[in-house]
Each structure stands twice: as C-alpha cells, then as structure tokens.
Amino acid sequence: MGDTHTGKPRGRQREADRNDARLIQAAREVFAERGWDAPVSEIARRAGIGMGSLYRRYPSKELLAQRMRLAGMEQLVAQAHTALAEEPDAWAAFARFLRDALSAQGSSGPLLPQVGGRLPATDEVLAAADRLRAALDDLVGGAHRAGVLRADFTSADIPLLLEHLAARIPVTGERATALHLRYLDLVLAGLRPPAADQTTILPGPAPDWAELSELWNAPGV
Predict the structure, then answer these.
(1) Which alpha helices (H) appear in 48-192, and where do they start and end?
(2) Which residues are CB-neighbours of 155 under 8 A, at least 6 positions away?
(3) Percent with pLDDT over 70 in the chain
(4) pLDDT at 6 over 70
(5) For residue 187, which of 79, 94, 107 has the smallest C-alpha distance?
(6) pTM score, two decimals?
C-alpha cells in the first residue's frame, strides 16, 4: 500500500521492489553466463535473496524469466518516451534512445538469446510488446518524417539491432559499455540517409513484428 501523502510505496513494498529489481538483474547475468539451464539457486545467491523469498515471488524459473523479459520491454518503452520528451529533434531522440538502451544492458548481454523461443506469449507479454512497438514506431516515424533516418530502416529493426550491439565481449564494466557505444556510433553513421548522389540498398527485407514474435515466443503458442 502506498504512502497516502506521497503516493510512494511504504517500507515493506519498497523492499519488495528492490528485491525484485535485484532478482531481475541477477537472472539476466546468470542466464547470460550459464544459459537457460542455470540453477535458480545461483540467481538467488547473486541477488542476495533467500530461496524461500525467490520461490514465494516466482514459483518457477519460467515465471522469473517472463518477468525478466517484461521488465526489459517496459524499460525500453520508458527510455523511448524519455528520449522523445526530452530531446530537441527527431535524430537526437532516436540516437539518445539507442544509447540509453545499450548502456542499460551493461555487461549482461542481449536478452533474446537467453530466453527467446522458450516462453509463451501471455496476454501481459503481448500487451507489453504492443506498447514497445508503438513507442519505437514513434521514434522511427519521427526520424523518417524529419528526413534524418534512412527510409529502409524500420521500428522492427531496433530490437535485433540492439541484440547485435549488446553481444557479450571479453571485457566487463565501463570498458564493455564504452566499446558497445563505440560500435553504436559507427552504426548510427550508417543509419543516416545516403547522399543524393549515392545509392545504398540494405540486403534482404527488414524484419516485421510477426517475425520478431516468432523469435521471442515458444512455438505453437
């Protein structure tokens, strides 16, 4: 229950929220390092939370992983909204979002290889995916209308682009973040529209959101 004066969660709820955030971050790290077969005991240990507390909140690994990917989508939506609200132009918002999204992943690596295709698309997941698509459509649409983003880049390119840019590299911490952002800047240069006297065509069609759904969700669900 929230504080009636500030609307903020009270002590017990704040502690539960902090524990949840630690669990989600630990799950990302452990799945990235050890794959889907990693024991949940390692996740609890790294989060500094007892197994009883973990199982009371997430009775199965699947439920924890679902929450992990929902949190990832919610974070991307929030970052897109922040970039659109705070940046002065369409290109600045687009680049800001990509930098924020990439920096937030830290050294845990991309999310899709960790859980992609293993979990069903629940109503909650589908609703989060719709919100993410709408936010990314706003970013890309604004950049297209301003003429600052190549026309053959779509909002559905963004999740897979982030997966590639966030690939695990054999360094950690600030150095890993610096290298990821270095390669992001190289990619951003290539996402500008080509000059009038140049013709560049990306090989193959862009992904669509249905294709991304197939990558994310368990078959036949």
Answers:
(1) 51-57, 61-86, 90-105, 112-115, 123-145, 157-165, 173-191
(2) 133, 136, 137, 139, 140, 141
(3) 88
(4) no
(5) 94
(6) 0.82
Residues 145/188, Cβ–Cβ less than 8 Å: no
CB 99 within 8 A of CB 56: no
Q: How many CB atoms lie within 10 A of CB 145?
A: 10
Radius of gyration of the chain (CA): 19
36, 114 contact by CB (below 8 A): yes
Q: Which DSSP letter does residue 203 get?
A: S
Q: Which amino acid does the sequence have at 214?
A: E
Cα angle for residues 18, 23, 26 (degrees, 5° grid): 125
Whether 97 and 155 have beta carbons less than 8 Å apart is answered as: no
133 close to 155: Cβ distance less than 8 angstroms:
yes
pLDDT tens for residues 127-186? 999 999 999 999 999 999 999 999 999 999 999 899 888 877 777 778 878 888 898 999
Q: Give the span between the Cα atoms of 69 and 19, in whole angstroms.
A: 17
Residue 1: per-residue pLDDT: 44
Which residues have a Cβ under 8 Å from the Cβ of 142 and sit 6 or more positions away?
84, 90, 93, 94
Q: Which amino acid is at 191?
A: L
